[in-house]
Amino acid sequence: MGENIIKIAVLLSGTGRTLDNFVKKIKNGTLKAEIVCVASNKINCLGLEKAKKYGIPAKGFDIKDNERLNKEINNFILQFNPDLIVLAGYLKKYNVPEDYRFRVINIHPALIPSFCGKGYYGIKVHKAVWESGVKVTGCTVHFVNENYDEGLIIAQRCVPVYAKDTPKDIANRVFEEECNLYPEIINLFADNLIEVRDNKVYIKGE
User: Fold this and answer.
1) When you count CB atoms within 10 A of the terminal residue's CB, does the N or C end of the chain come out lower?
2) Mean pLDDT along residues 95-110
3) Of the candidates 69, 99, 74, 67, the residue with the CA atom closest to the CA atom of residue 9
4) Contact 13, 40 (CB under 8 A)
5) Helices (H), ranges, 56-100
């Protein structure tokens, strides 16, 4: 796999399924990353418990004011000097530190610019997809900026939507693809293959 190991900080709000996936892929040698810390906007969530069991420094914050919440989270994670900040089911608006422009990424469980923005998270996204009658959906990895789901798109993957599907069926199919795409993109960062120019994201060599 090479020696390019990228240090990542993970932000989460829920069960930590994406964290589980990262740890699994690091252990089997398919993710070129070291998780240096985990932070959450909740003090009691399964994702934090998992991080601690994995031996990863982890901290939750019960702060209502989002500006103060961001400040405290950044004070915690930046002491670990991560190369990349990775949002993994983090449900608050995150303010990107000044030195981390184009070094904070998120995965959204739909094909941006559809079914995204404030209020579109978790099963709400897949319910909206199901109600719309679209035949494809998917997931999007994008840079984080000051607006929900509006940062530059890095990569997208499609999955089919079938007439017999339930929102949960769609959610499971999308998450399976997320588990492949997100580590692939982190590996591209580890290998320094992501380039931003002219307000677009390019993968070197493609």
Assistant:
1) C
2) 96
3) 74
4) yes
5) 66-77
pLDDT class of 187 with cuts at 50, 70, 90: very high
**Residues 6 or more apart from 84 whose CB is under 8 A from it?**
6, 7, 8, 9, 103, 104, 105, 186, 189
CATH of domain 1-100: 3.40.50.170
- The residue ranges of every structural domain in the chain are 1-100, 106-206
Element (H, E) at 12: strand 6-12
Catalytic residue among 108, 126, 142, 173: 108
CA angle 103, 104, 106 (to 5 degrees): 140
Residue environment code for 123-157, b if the CB has 16+ CB neighbours within 10 A, otherwise e: eebbbbbbeeeeeebbbbbbbbbeebbebebbbbb
User: pLDDT per residue over 8-43, tens digit each?
Assistant: 999 999 999 999 999 999 999 999 999 999 999 999
Note whether 138 and 110 are within 8 A (CB).
yes
Q: pLDDT-derived band of residue 68, with 50, 70 and 90 as boundaries?
A: very high
Assess whether the previous peptide bond of 113 is cis (omega < 30° from 0): yes
Check if the beta carbon of residue 31 is closer than 8 Å to that of residue 186.
yes
Nearest to 89 by CA among 106, 102, 104: 106
User: Could you tell me the two tokens for 76?
Assistant: 């915690």
- CATH fold, domain 106-206, is Rossmann fold (3.40.50)
- The reply to whether 108 belongs to the active site is yes
